[in-house]
Recover the amino acids of this structure.
């Protein structure tokens, strides 16, 4: 079974995000970038399927600028076999990414596509679902457990009321939640090996896909500063404070 995993280059989750002075977006110049954490979980899930003898090949795919090759190298260091970069210097929205991924899916013909449930930069959480619709494939989102047996994919997914279990007939699409796994620590030998693995670079405009943006960002601003807390002397004072501040009866 061939597995395709989508990965995205985002601002590292340990970095304090700063808004540009002109309010046009988030500052990314001289900022540490890394693989989206949910996508890292997706790569780990795919590699574990290969280690279990279920997957025959794991392909990591990223859509974005040329620097996204660094992100693909991380996926290759985790254990992916090869990478594909759909190079595009313009900002891509979920619909455009899904269209580009669909073109790669048609070329590679994977039996399973795994993606992170959302990216930590825009928090859209839409790409996997849109891709499933474009490819007309069954999907299981927010997966906390993935099993494959008797040509059936069994996915446990988290929902508001607890969890539910779905059975999917591949080819299928799965998006990963935090509790699916804990990605392995990437060792130096793995990083060295990743440098020797192939990455195919494909120009986005060569795929005959409409990636025009339909959304315009008018302004980006930081959230208002949080008001400092206050101390009260006792419970009665606390109740009075709550009544005066938030109209609690």
């Amino acid at each position: 079974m061939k597995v395709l995993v989508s990965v995205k280059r985002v601002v590292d989750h340990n970095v304090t995000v700063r808004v540009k002075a002109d309010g046009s977006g988030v500052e990314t110049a001289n900022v540490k970038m890394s693989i989206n954490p949910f996508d890292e979980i997706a790569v780990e899930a795919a590699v574990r399927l290969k280690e279990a003898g279920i997957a025959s090949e794991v392909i990591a795919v990223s859509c974005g600028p040329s620097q996204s090759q660094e992100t693909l190298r991380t996926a290759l260091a985790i254990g992916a076999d090869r990478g594909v970069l759909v190079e595009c210097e313009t900002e891509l929205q979920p619909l455009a990414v899904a269209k580009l991924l669909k073109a790669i899916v048609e070329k590679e013909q994977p039996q399973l596509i795994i993606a992170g449930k959302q990216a930590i930069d825009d928090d859209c959480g839409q790409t996997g679902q849109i891709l499933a619709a474009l490819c007309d494939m069954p999907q299981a989102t927010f997966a906390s457990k993935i099993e494959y047996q008797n040509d059936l994919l069994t996915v446990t997914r988290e929902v508001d009321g607890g969890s539910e279990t779905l059975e999917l007939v591949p080819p299928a699409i799965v998006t990963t939640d935090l509790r699916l796994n804990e990605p392995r620590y990437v060792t130096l030998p793995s990083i060295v090996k990743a440098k020797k693995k192939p990455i195919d670079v494909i120009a986005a405009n060569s795929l005959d896909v409409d990636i025009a943006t339909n959304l315009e960002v008018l302004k980006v601003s930081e959230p208002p500063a949080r008001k400092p807390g206050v101390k009260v002397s006792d419970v009665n004072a606390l109740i009075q404070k709550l009544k005066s501040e938030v109209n609690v009866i």
Summary: The domain at 2-246 is CATH 3.40.50.620 (Rossmann fold). The first strand starts at residue 2 and ends at 7.
